[in-house]
User: Fold these one by one.
Assistant:
Number 1:
Amino acid sequence: MQKDIVLTMRNVSKAFPGVKALQDVDFTLRKGEICALMGENGAGKSTLIKVLTGVYHMDAGQVNIAGIDKAITIRSPQEAQNMGISTVYQEITLCPNLTVAENMFIGRGKYNFINWRDMEKKAKEILDNLDIPARPSQQLSNCSLAVQQMVAIARAVDADCKVLILDEPTSSLDDQEVAKLFALMRDLKSKGVGIVFVTHFLEQVYEVCDSITVLRDGKLVGEYDIKNLPRVQLIAKMMGKEFDDLSELNKKEISSDEDGETPVLEAFGLSSAAGVKPFDFKIKKGEVNGFTGLLGSGRSESVRAIFGADRITGGKVKMHGKTVRIAKPIDAMKQKIAYLSEDRKGDGLIADLSVRENIILALQVKKGFFKPFSRAEAEAFADKYIKLLEIKTASADTLIGSLSGGNQQKAILARWLLTNPEYLILDEPTRGIDVGTKVEIQKLVLKLAAEGMSITFISSEIEEMVRTCSRLIVMRDRKIVGELSSSEITQDNIMHTIAGGGNS
Amino acid sequence: MSKVKTVMQKNSQLIIPLIALLAIVLFNVIRCVVIGNFSFFEIRLTENTNILSGNVINILKDASELAILAMGMTLVTSASRGQDISVGASAAIAGSVFVKILLANPANWGVIIIAILASCVVAMICGAFNGILVSIFKIQPMIATLILYTVGRSIAYWINGGATPTIAKDHPVLYLGGFFPGNPIPTPIFIVIICAIIFVLVLKFTNLGLYTQAVGINEKAAHLNGINPIKMKLLTFIILGVCVALAGVIRVSRLALINHETILLGVEMDAILAVAIGGNSLGGGKFKLSGSIIGAYVIEALTNTLYAMKVASTDVKAYKAIVIILIVVMGSPVVKKHTSRLWSKLFKKKEIPATAGASSSKGGM
């Protein structure tokens, strides 16, 4: 092993039933280096980290760490810790009702008895050493989030910590707090700790990191020096599109904006408690538009606001030119709006109910509490859509939780198609499903639009957006930063707009 | 064949409670053979009073309050993923109101009906109180209902003015806890049947079942499908309130008095147990009402059997606990997994019908 390298991972592979989460991934971390681990959802970032911290066991590959001559096997987070690999997670996993010192030392070491004075003294040393503005005897819940995060890091950074993994540590911090955290990271860096930094914020990557490792679809895209990888290039790498690759552009009907047709839905200054900044939006009959932007840019929050899924904090909505009040999902459903949510498992499936019950649910709720469908009606609906969308299930009575991801998604799609919507919002309908089904869903979107349905389509895969949308709304930091229509919709343009490198 | 299989699969949840019930019956049969006396199963028609009596009738009758409470508790469990431990205390309040109205007015059926309705309203308010804490304030059900559990019997004490009011021996309300003149079957049994029918009809003609299950399984998804989880949870607590009032009314009519300290003491735990024995997850979501009802009768049959065996009343709880351990472990996911593996092994090897698989798993218990 080279002298300045603290960690190498070679040909790491990990498969889950049906998914190859990691395929032959290499990763290298140098002493005193902050390396950003980048990739869109499902790229394999968290799998890689979990392999490194012993939560998962890799199927193949080799991990070496400085100070140990042979390849290491990490069986548990405890073992990882002992080998000098520490992790701080996005959610602060400390005990708010204990003191700072207690949080730093509790559960560490092999002692059954604690010398409180000793502990506080040691804690003070570490805190001073790292310039963390906290007293050892202070209760943790009295510290700001940033300081709590720093305490978590202090806890993680032992004398023999070689590798520190920070998994989205900044997501709940404000700018000032982030600055403090970065100061701490730089300090640790100067002390020779190798830091793996996972974040969705590009700004932060360019502010603090030395190198970038990009993963996509479980494979290594490359390891780059930060200076050699401008922002647009990084986005291109993450999304898997070469900058100048415009080959498969598919033009569709071009709708001019000035034809005076009343939009199906118009929103003015809409904002929600989920933190999306006030935005305007409209969609016409038969139009397919999309929200794009990196994860966390506010694309889901925007459509959730339209559907009334989060608490609405301002703005108004017009359907067919008439002002309507949409405060909760049922209001939107009554206006013939349907929303297929991003998080299928968390927000979509009722896993313990049958495919049939899942398919009829939305229409049933729309029909009313006192008007249940008869068994025969429900069966007819379910069978129709199982056939129509070719949902592979043993029967309509099968629990939906036991289907494959793609078929679950089709069943949820069936649920919303069954309500016969005028405006259908599809938030990441193709995430985590196989390629065949993806194409089917894209085709279906275009077919439905041709039949007059208005559709908003959101996807992390830019290629899908290019193929299906005739208008694209680009978001960054929970704001709309640009809009592209018809011929402007190219991967090139989209990436430029996302990166903020100019709105062509 | 495949139809038999689907019916079996759909009701697989009922296998454990039914086996438990059967086992208790079987145990009694064996016991009777051993002692050479089958009086346990005897149903007698007393000649001059013309009423049915015997252990079987007693079990059916005595399980009434529990069965009614178990039905309501099932819904609360499903929607709120927790249990209401205040049902006994709430029943004391509802029962006290019931008695208070009865004693303050002439003894006729108009007054009785008004008294029942009043106790229902009071118990529904108690339920709504719990429901609001759980649904709006998102307090864990057990903590939320701990409040009424703690204070309920004190409230009942205040309503009764510290006394234990008794109902006159000739008051017609006692028919509700005993027998209507000329009818040999105890009235509580009818009340349970009526309750069960109402529940079945409500579940059939409304979406109560679908909504509560959806809320219990995935609250966020239910919300995005237009269901209001807060309303649904509140509704289940209010429905449980009605059950609580009925249980209180039956118990008061049976005893002809209200003792705020002892009325339906500890019934909440039996009701929760009935839900669990019925194969329902106490973690909420899917439920089967019939399971909980069977569960209630399992508990009562067990208690009654123990008394018939002349077990001292102080020891009964210990024996009950042992049997409950068996039932609960039998129904646990770990054991279920093993039995179903055994089942499918047998099934695949010899191509035996599903029913044979069922009996083999029964042999294993």
Number 2:
Amino acid sequence: MKPGTRLKSAACDTEVMVIRTAGGTIECGGAAMAEEKPADAAALSPDHSNGSLMGKRYVDADNAYELLCVKPGKGSLSVDGVALVTKDAKPLPASD
Amino acid sequence: MATKVMQGVRVLEVAQFTFTPAAGAILADWGADVIKVEHPVRGDTQRGFLNLGGFQVDPMRHTLIEHPNRGKRSVGIDLSTPEGQEVLYELAKTSDVFLTNYLPHHRQKNKFDVEHIKAVKPDIIYARGSAFGAKGPDYARGGFDGTVFWSGSGIAYAHSPEELGGPLSQAIPAFGDSIGGMFIAGGISAALFHREKTGEGAVMDVSLQSTAWWAAGASLSQQMEHGVSQRAQMPTSGGMQVNPFLGNFWTSDGRTINLCILSPTGLIEDTFEHMNRPEAAKDPRFADPLSLFQNAQAASEILVEAFAEHDFAYWRERLKTLKGQWAAVINFEEMSQDEQALANDMVIEVEAPDGGPPIKLVRGPVQWNGEPLETTRAPQASEHTEIVLMESGIEWDRIEEWKAKGAIA
């Protein structure tokens, strides 16, 4: 799969842009994502339903995968069943 | 289709906090494609605010990121790396405006000062927001609006009655920044027109100090010309020494009505009648403006007594038909529900990054063709890095190479 590809969730509204991939199955809500939405929606797995957040990057522990959420949804992102985590900016502490 | 006067203009912003980013937000509101460059790991330092005005910040509903950054896209670039600088130059080539508030030594060290950006885009408008301007002993010194605009300008002093024993703090976060950001946006608009006519891209400066000078211009000019200027006095209920129709008056429930009838001609009778003092309107002491001024103390006492007879709600309703100028002294909670402000589309809504209800923000002061403003939420840090670079025709292999080196997010 080419980086830059957009994938859609089969189980919710989530859409991502693939930034980095290593060949595993990219999933959302427990179901494999694809460039086109399937005719019949997949069931949202309760184990993968923490939601995706607009504009956030999601990575795995080895940094082999990076997905950019371009449309949020109820499903959470995973690769081969392993949940991805958000790659957050680490701003310096400040206060007004 | 909403009017977007800056459609087709690209702004490359390397700026943090509110003052200079707010200019980018105004231009984005007006239709410009504003690309905000942020550090790939830390992002805009303002993202790290734990508190705003003493209240805890929710990083996913961060109004001080939304206010000065709505409508933009964010690209994460580490400008301390040669590759990061290369990426910045690629983006500068397709930009009309370069907007920055980094200090001079940072711009030199990371090679995005005027000469570096002009080298790749000679007619670009190079807009700088600074604390103290581009010249003089403090040109390289940083500052915030609380220091330069408010405290260091005479403004804090003028707003603080002597009896307080010390100056009031700037109680509105980013107050000077938000005013000054609009000044920068206005300057950029004029610079774009100038470039259209002459082909030349100007270098422009707006500082927090120049913002304060302009905002306080009436007092500073008076000071320089006459050696005097006004200072706030302790709050009291009553009219001014000369003009009794000018001042704050306290209502029975401890709120305040401000009267500002600078020129009372033709308004004396109407004012006293609204105060439920029709007999005063016929009093020869108040028959005409000069008599009124001579008997200011007596007139003020009548008004003070009248205002204290009814509550704030009564006066707000009662004064709706007053011919002279007046205001109810309200707070931000009341302002955010103000019918008049809402009728003029002051509130805008953007999608919330946490998926919750929309975040309400304030539109800029300029309205185009009477239309409400449509814009989008502020970007997450580095959200659009790959998308913007691909749009600029950069191939994925190069993007990956830069990513691997940590030059981009």
